[in-house]
Amino acid sequence: MYSTRAIQTASGILQRRRQQARQEAAARQEKLFARYPELEQYDQRLRSLTRSIALAAVSGKGAETEQILAKIQQLQGERRARLEQLGLAAGCLEPQYTCPLCQDTGAVEGKRCQCMETLLREESCRGLPSVVLDGRSTFDTFDLGYYPDTPVPGGRSPRERMAKILERCRDYACHFGAQSGSLLFLGRTGLGKTHLSLAIAGQVAKQGATVLYASAQSIIDRYERLRFDRGPTPDDREFAQMAPRCDLLVIDDLGAEFSTAFSQSVLYNILNERITAGLPVILSSNLTLEQISATYNERIASRILCGCTSFVFTGEDIRFLRQMEKKKQ
Fold first, then answer.
1. Is 119 domain-assigned?
2. Do residues 136 and 175 both lie within one domain?
3. Mind spelling out the 3-state secondary structure of the chain?
4. pLDDT tens across 226-264, in order?
């Protein structure tokens, strides 16, 4: 399900393409008709026959309709031959649409054209943070070299653990679907939780799914503006409409929001509606499992802990390590 804004934007792009193609065709016709008057005569006769065939069809005159069709085909053949004699392309008088299949209408035989699907995917991706659009938060830019390769006592090294998480996230995004399930990313700040959640969001959006990404606090802020009429924007309304129903919802920094009865109610309603409907959600939090249970009421904690597959991120603060590298340089 694509957002209203994505559909409106994509439809607007197609409408402009179609209008431009027609304007350019009209300009070409004007020049060619002035130079070759016989081409305009062909055009006028064809338009007259087209009107006649419409009238015959309405009147139920089948035989007459077939005769007019034959005349149209004959005239079109004569026009093609004349264009060839003049060294002109057969379609030079017609609009050159970006998508010949749907003629920039966005639909073919009552179904959405592939060009429309492509535009909708592009518009869906534009709703994601800039680090996704410019390629900074992808699976390929997730650098395992920042994670220590020394095994912790009684377990694997942070690098080995994170390599496994990276693999699982790639697989999740590659095979994403309605039954993919929900994920919970846990760990201290700077360990790559946001990076991987955005990498999933970006790839899933490119595959044609509708993805929403927001921090927990920004979600609460949107719902507060709507609930208490504090200058809500069209984006706020669309987000509230899409959050419970989009293909994938990514909520970052869970637990960093200002906790109130209202905020907990908002989060519960969104999570409950999505998990009950089997719609995937990805949550990232700096809290531990125990802290989640202590921070949220039992209903929310149950939805989070029982409805998601948990991944615990380990290692050192990557943001700090990168800052140190820049200072050394």
1. no
2. yes
3. CCCHHHHHHHHHHHHHHHHHHHHHHHHHHHHHHHHCHHHHHHHHHHHHHHHHHHHHHHHCCHHHHHHHHHHHHHHHHHHHHHHHHCCCCCCCCCCCCCCCCCCCCCEECCEECHHHHHHHHHHHHHCCCHHHHCCCCCCCCCCHHHCCCCCCCCCCCHHHHHHHHHHHHHHHHHCCCCCCCEEEEECCCCCCHHHHHHHHHHHHHHCCCCEEEEEHHHHHHHHHHHHCCCCCCHHHHHHHHHCCCCCEEEEEEECCCCCCHHHHHHHHHHHHHHHHHCCCEEEEECCCHHHHHHHCCHHHHHHHHHHEEEEECCCCCHHHHHHHHHHHC
4. 999 999 998 899 899 989 988 999 999 999 999 999 999
